Amino acid sequence: MHDVVVVGGGIAGLTAARDLAHRGYGVLVLEARDRLGGRTWWKRFADTDHHAEMGGTWFDEGTQLNIAREIQRYSLPTVLSPAGQAFRVSLGGRSLARSDQPVPPDVRPDLEKAIDHIVDQSRRVTFGSDLDSPDLHDLDIPFSELVAPYSDQQLVDEYLSMWAAFAFGCDPSDVSALQVLTWVAGYDNMTWTLDDAPATKFALGTASLVDALAEDGGSEIELSAPVVSIGDAGDHVEVTTAGGETHRARFALLATPVNTWEDIELPIPTDSLKARFAAEGLAGQAVKLHALVDDVPEFLMASGWGGPLCWVSEQANFDGGRLLVGIGSDDSAIDGTDPAQVQQAIRQFAPEATVRMCDSHNWSTDPYAKGTWTTYRPGQLSRYYSDFFVPHGRLYFGGSDLARGWAGFMDGAIESGAETAAALSRRLSEDS
Question: Is this structure's pTM higher than 0.85?
Answer without folding.
Answer: yes
